Amino acid sequence: MSADANRHIEELYAVPLKEFTSARNAKAAALKAAGHGADAQALRRLGRPSVSLWTTNQLARLVPKQVGHFIDLVLEARRRQLTEPRAIAEAMKA
Q1: pLDDT tens-digit readout, 55-65
Q2: Which of 15, 29, 35, 65 is 20 to 30 Å from 7 by CA-CA measure?
Q3: How far apart are CA 62 and CA 13, in angstroms?
Q4: What is the 3-state secondary structure (H, E, C) of 57-94?
Q5: Rounded CA gap, 13 and 19, in Å?
């Protein structure tokens, strides 16, 4: 997939969820008209994300540091659960 198609995908997942399908189809049509048929076809195959996935994407765009911190905390809790079962309570409090 080209860099142009990747840019379109990134933009697509930023639109409001109820506009996903129409935005996807418009972007695919624009790619096809520009002579990028394979990219247009790949874009058209993208499915509408679930509400939870779309929400997670929006959070990652709006507050990336906080999402990264949350992921780090979850990974630390998991590590502690596997290596130090008694320490999991502390990790969960964090």
Answers
A1: 999 999 999 99
A2: 65
A3: 13
A4: HHHHHHCHHHHHHHHHHHHHHHHHHHHCHHHHHHHHHC
A5: 10
52 is written with which tokens? 């939870």
- What is the per-residue pLDDT across 42-82, written as a single tens digit (0 to 9) for each? 999 999 999 999 999 999 999 999 999 999 988 988 888 77
Dist. CA 43–CA 51, nearest whole Å = 19
Residue type, 47: G
User: Quick one: pLDDT at residue 94?
Assistant: 66
d(Cα 69, Cα 64) in Å, to the nearest integer?
Answer: 9
- DSSP-derived secondary structure letter, 22: H
Token pair 């596997």 is found at 82
